[in-house]
Structures are given as C-alpha cells and as structure tokens.
Write a structure and sequence with these properties.
The complex is a heterodimer. Chain A is built from seven helices and ten strands. Chain A is α+β, with helices and mostly antiparallel strands. Chain A has one domain: Alpha-Beta Plaits. Chain A is globular and about 80 Å long. Helices cover 66% and strands 3% of the residues of chain B. Chain B has 13 helices and five strands. Chain B has a two-stranded antiparallel sheet. A two-stranded parallel sheet of chain B has the order 2-5. The chains are: A alpha+beta, B mainly alpha.
C-alpha cells in the first residue's frame, strides 16, 4: 500500500490531535480525589521569636536535616536547606544584626502551588503546603516563584546510611522538595523537629500550633504580641510569623 | 504573480552533509539527556539559585521564534501583504519545526521527564505551564491545519490563518507570562514582559525567516527578488523598534520609582550588565538597526542577512538576560536590609553552564533544523521562484 502526501499530512494531523487531546479526556473523566485526610478544623502555623534566637545556634537546622534525611552535598549552591539561619542587618548598620531561621512559609496563597503544572505542590486542608514527590516532574518553576527561596532541587542521588531516619524517605533526585512542617510528626500529635530542637536547647524561640484553636499558645501569642510575616506586602498570607523582627 | 510550489531536490552532497550534521547533533543531545537522567542535574551548571539555565534559554528562544516564524503567513493572510503569500507554507512549517525543537529541549531538561504525561493528567489551570501545554499543542495543530488549508483547501486559509494569528499572540503572551507573573523576581516581574516577548517574537521570527529564505534560495539556486527581502527588512526594522520601545518604557517606569533603583542599577552595572548592554541593546536592537538603516548595507541582501543574524543572537541574549540575570539577582526578602546565610542569601548567584547544557540546547536546534530540511525536501513548501507582484514598489527604503 502506498500513501500520497495528502494522506500522510492528514494522518499526521489526526495523530497529533489524538496525542494532545487524549490525556485531557482522562482528566475530565477522572478528576483527582481529595488528597489527604487532614482536617480544615486546624490551621497549623509557627511563631518565631527572633529575640530568643542565637546567631551561633543551628539546632533547628541540624534537627531538620536529621529528621527529614536532608543531605548536604558540600556545594553551597546545591546543598538542600529546608530551614536555614539568616543574618539580617539594616543597610546603614545602625542596629545590631538579627539572626532568624527561614523555611517554607506555608502560605495561604502559595505561588509555588499556583505555578505547579501537575498539582504536585498542594495545600492540605490544615494549611500545610506539601509536595507530592511522586508527582513532581522537576520543572523547577516553583523555585522561581517562591519568594523565600525555600525550595531545593535534589541535584544528586541520595542514599540511606546508618544516621538516616527510617521513618522518612530519602530525598529523591530530580525532584523539588521543601519543609513540610514535619507533617509525619504533626499527624502523630508531635511538634516539628526544629521546634523540638529549639526547646531542647532551652531557647523556646519557636512555637508551633493551631491558629484555629483560640486557646493554643500560638493563637494567644499572636493576639497579644506584635508579630509580622516576611514580605507580607506580596499578599501570600504566610503562616510563619516572627516576633521582634 | 505567484509561481509553483516545488520540493527541493535535496540530493546534493551539501544537503546530506547538513542533514548528517544535524543528526549527529541530535544524537549528542540525546546523549546529554541520558547523562543528566543517570547522573542528575548535578552534572549541569544549574543550582538552587539558577534553577533554569542554558537549556531553557535555547528552548524559550526557539518557542518565541516559532511564534514569530508565522509572521510571513500572518502578513499575507491577515494583512493582505501579497508578496508574502508565497511564503505561507514555509512560515507555518517553520513555526511547527521551531516549536517542536524548543519543546524537546524544555521537556528533556525536566528533573523527571518520565513523568511528563502527568502535566496532562493533573492539570493546574492557575499554572502558566499548564496553560502553555494547551497553547503549544494547540499552536501545532492550528499551524498544521493552516498548512493543510494552504495545500489543499484554500477556501479555509483566511479563517484558519486569522485564528493562527490570534493564537500566536496569546501563545507568546503565555510564554512571556511564565516570567512576568512571578512577583518574587524583581528583574522580570512586569506587565510589560509578555508584550515584550510578543514584540521579540515578531522581530526574531522575521529575522530567522530572512536567514532561512536567503540561504535556502541561494543554495537551491532559486530566484529570490531583492525587493521581497527588502519588504521583510522593513518589517524587521519596525518590529525591532517595537522591542526597543517596550524596553525603554519598562526602564523608564522602573527608574521613576526609587523602590527599583537597586535592581535597575544592578541590571546596568552588575555582573550581567554585559549581557544586557551588548546582547540585548547591542545584538538585538542597535546592530540590526544600524545595518538596516545604513544607506548601502541596508539596501543589500547581505546586509539584511547580517542584521537578521544579529537579531537572532540578540533574541537569545534577551531571553538569557531575563532568565539568568532574573534568577541571579538576590531575592529581596527583607527590603532595606542586608541578608547573609549559608544558602548564599543576599548575594548574586553564580552560574557556569556545562557542555551538557549547550549540547542539549543545540540538539533542540538540530531537531528544528532537520525537520525543516526534510520538510522542504519531501513537501512542496517553497515557491520555485520568489518574486514581487508586478509593479510593486516598497513604500520606502533606508
């Protein structure tokens, strides 16, 4: 059988249209189910008192690394930081510098989730912004969108060692990940690792809790002391609050 | 006025040498892709601050040019510029070839390209990427239909060509909006980023069309009247001026507000200033305009060709500047404060691309190149001679 060019063109067009449209049909036929069992009765948030945060202390960052199997590759440009310590100082150097931890702010309007083409980044009902690492295609658009530089691509293969936390998966090469408020601990009624570590150091600079519970420590604090969020002007409604900034 | 459309013979040693060259580049690109798949993006120069690098510069530049490649078709179908009607098939076909080349690079650079289909199964309609999945695939379909109508059903050409024109404007707006909508990035967050991409597509698409038409007609020994090239030159002049206008308006607006002094001064004097001044203003705007407005060079096909080459290089430079400088500029998390950390907060990001990235990018160009070469051999894409309508005169010359 021979085909003339007209037929080839026609078949090519039909095939292209089929490839493009078929997955869309799947989407219409089978919308994704609800993603988690978390409850919207809670709204998890964090409050960090920078007055209590010591610039020499890195207990929170170490605890995060240990708990979540976050590796260091030895390259400052590629190392993964789910939480990091920042030193900030006014440009005129009139006031002393301030040390504070910065992580994913679990925004109510997260630009990372808005730009994610596969909904790999999504907001759980309780406000925690999560990444489904099995759905992330590694496009890194979220890394450009996040104003807090809270996201890292895993540039190299990672592996388990004797120090790895067996309860948490290792970080996946080619996927973008970030702080998840230690969701596995929160779901067990525990505090995130950074908050526990800060408390263990006797600093008590970090409070984690439910903003929907008016009696929670964090709710009381946010009602009674002056707090602020980073880049509140962007309208993202971050849920990591700072006192003394 | 119009001559017949014929496929090129494509039997010469030069033709097959070029096809082989592109095939080798594609193989090398495939090798680069496999290497990144195995070793991860650690073998590229990209990092957590410059997450989009050279492959994205290649990909997005080609996507912008793909939209622009439709210029000749649009000018004849929508704006009734008769002397470009003979390039309608070439125009739609080139648009498809460039789009496929660009998309190939974009997709093969993903951290997990094996999950690509998830973009169509779990769509997020607030994402510019998701919208672009529709815009790009729709563009291929509409260009294909446009091409088909020009071949077989010319009664539909006007309708489909007009739809293609609207689609391409939306498509390039979508590409520019990938950057323009990101509030966190001071270098490229602007309502003018998308229109600038549209203008850039007009200039770069015209430029790449001039380059390919002049070289293809020369090597296939077909007649291409100078007046036809000069018509394209006039279009290139005004499209380039449009890009310059939008860049000036954007700079003027930003420099009017003290809040943007830091970032604007950084663009003009920082580590990427050479790219902005030489690449964007030099290669994309001033050199092409300097040549095209020159009384003798602007009136020679060779001059127009060189101006077009410069415009294409400038297109890559503009996209590179938006992308690389846009990411290198430190995020302004605490306006008015100096910031430092082990994650290199507060400092300009560094980025040294590796050969893997360039090979992947050139592989994408080779994909477009080989599609073009095979297309003009197996289909009647080009007129056997390109002449202007009888009595036609250009409204003006430099």
């Amino acid at each position: 059988m021979t085909m003339d060019r007209r037929t080839v063109l026609g078949l090519g067009g039909v095939a292209t249209a089929g490839v493009v449209l078929a997955p869309g049909m799947t989407l219409i036929a089978a919308p994704p189910p609800d993603k988690t069992e978390a409850s919207s009765d809670q709204r998890w948030a964090m409050l960090i008192d920078v007055n209590k945060c010591d610039s020499n202390c890195t207990a929170c960052t170490k605890a995060c690394r240990q708990e979540n199997n976050v590796p260091l590759f030895g390259d400052p440009n590629r190392d993964i930081h789910w939480i990091r310590k920042l030193e900030i100082r006014d440009k005129e150097h009139r006031r002393p510098s301030v040390s504070l931890p910065v992580m994913c702010n679990h925004c109510e309007n997260p630009p990372c989730a808005h730009v994610c083409p596969t909904q790999a980044t999504f907001i759980r009902k309780d406000g925690i912004v999560l990444v489904d690492k099995h759905r992330c295609i590694g496009c890194r658009y979220c890394m450009l969108a996040c104003p807090y530089k809270a996201r890292s691509l895993v540039y190299h293969e990672t592996s388990r060692n004797e120090d790895s936390n067996p309860e948490v998966p290792i970080r996946a090469k080619g996927v973008v990940e970030k702080c998840n408020f230690c969701v596995h601990l929160v779901d067990d009624g525990k505090q995130p690792a950074c908050v526990q570590a800060c408390r263990n150091e006797g600093k008590h600079a970090m409070i984690f809790g439910d903003l929907n519970d008016p009696q929670s420590e964090i709710s009381v604090k946010i009602r009674t002391v002056k707090t602020q969020t980073i880049r509140a002007d962007l309208g993202l409604k971050p849920h990591v609050h700072y006192e003394g900034l | 006025m119009l001559s017949n459309f014929t496929a090129i013979e494509g039997r010469s040693f030069g033709y097959w040498k070029l096809v082989t060259f592109f095939a080798v580049l594609i193989l090398m690109g495939a090798g680069a892709f496999v290497a990144v798949e195995i070793h991860g993006h650690g073998i590229t120069g990209m990092n957590n601050k410059i997450a989009w690098g050279v492959p994205h510069v290649f990909a997005i530049s080609m996507l912008v040019m793909a939209s622009g490649a439709l210029n000749l078709g649009s000018m004849s179908t929508v704006f009734a510029v008769k002397q470009f009607k003979q390039f309608g098939r070439f125009s739609a076909f080139l648009a498809i070839a460039l789009l496929i080349g660009g998309l190939a690079v974009l997709m093969l650079d993903l951290g997990r390209p094996d999950r690509l289909l998830l973009t169509m199964m779990h769509m997020n309609f607030t994402s510019m990427f998701t919208l672009n999945v529709f815009l790009y695939s729709g563009f291929i379909i509409i260009c294909f239909l446009y091409l088909w109508s020009m071949f077989e059903y010319q009664q539909y050409t006007k309708v489909i060509g007009s739809a293609a024109f609207m689609w391409r404007v939306i498509l390039t707006t979508g590409t520019g909006s990938i950057f323009g909508v990101l509030h966190a990035r001071e270098v490229f967050h602007s309502a003018l980023t998308a229109p600038t991409f549209v203008a850039l597509s007009l200039s770069s698409g015209t430029a790449i069309s001039i380059i390919l038409l002049v070289t293809t007609f020369k090597h296939t020994k077909r007649r291409l009247d100078d007046i036809v090239v000069f018509g394209l030159r006039n279009a290139l002049i005004f499209f380039t001026l449009l890009v310059a206008y939008l860049l000036v308006v954007e700079k003027f607006t930003k420099f009017y507000s003290p809040a943007f002094y830091d970032v604007q001064n950084w663009i003009l004097t920082g580590p990427y200033s050479w790219l902005y001044l030489l690449g964007v203003w030099g290669a994309a705007i001033l050199i092409p305009l300097g040549i095209l407005f020159h009384p003798s060079r602007g009136n020679s096909v060779k001059g127009v060709l060189w101006a077009s080459i410069s415009a294409v290089i400038g297109t890559f430079a503009l996209v590179a500047h938006i992308l690389l400088a846009g990411q290198a500029y430190p995020l302004n998390m605490f306006p008015g404060y100096e910031v430092s950390s082990v994650f290199l907060d507060g400092v300009t990001a560094t980025y040294t691309p590796t050969s893997v990235e360039y090979i992947l990018g050139f592989g994408g160009i080779a994909v477009a190149g080989i599609i073009y070469l095979l297309g003009i051999k197996f289909f009647r894409m080009l007129p056997d001679k390109a002449v202007a309508p009888e009595g036609y005169e250009l409204p003006w010359n430099p």
